[in-house]
Amino acid sequence: YSDAGLPLPAFLAAGGAFDSSTPDLVITLGAGIEVSPAYFGSDEYETGPTGIARIDYLRFPNGFEYGSGRAVGFRTGLGLRGSMRYISNRNSSHYSEIRGLDNVPWAFEAGLGLGYEQRNYRVFGDVRYGIIGSNAWVGDLGADAIAYPVDGLTLTLGPRLNFGSTLFTNTYFGVSASESAASGLPEYDPSGGLLGGGVVLGARYLFNERWGLEGEASWERLLNDAADSPITALGSEDQYEVRLNLTRRISLDF
Q1: What 3-state DSSP class applies to 232?
Q2: Which of 138, 130, 129, 83 minimizes the C-alpha distance to 104?
Q3: What structural domains does the chain harbor?
Q4: For 213-249, what is each residue's pLDDT tens digit?
Q5: Of 98, 158, 227, 254, which has the fewest CB atoms closer than 10 Å, so is most exposed?
Q6: How far is CA 153 from the centre of its chain?
């Protein structure tokens, strides 16, 4: 990415944007709470912890730069992006409507994406693999309009399309013969593909050059084989999430 020509919030433009004056690595870490469906397709919601781990800037030994060398979140052009997601476990015995289904362990997905960003919009596509847990492939396509209504505040709003492999869809929406016998739900052998579409509203507010708040509210409508699952039929095709994180930016000079 290149960061040329993008204005900074006043407190960043004044200097002191980084812990290190010439950082080689800038990361954002955060912790907070989220409200989300108890499991994919559920109409029950639970509150739990959430977090952020994001590489905002990286300078390689050969001089190649990823992200913005001036401030987090101000970059433009075409470039690579990282993508990660944590999925909590599904303990079916905790929910009467799906009791008898196999438990699903927690999963961690990691991958890369390609994005194009300008001051007032961005488009991107991400691909992730479940390196822990599901061992399945997933992907997202998205676009955002970007606005800066007041100093230090960035708002984003845009559509999303979510995809999953057959293994992913079977893990979270399928019902095997043994599960059918134990739960009373009909057998269901879904395929992968487009699983959902929706809208995401994001907000980032920087208190100063190091501390900030990041929030996100999203709506997703399950589609195709995810929507047709008997698990979803007992819950809802509409999935909502809200999360809020306190963030700290850390810069390192190697």
Answers
A1: helix
A2: 130
A3: 32-51+80-252 (2.40.160)
A4: 999 999 999 999 999 999 999 999 999 999 999 999 9
A5: 254
A6: 20
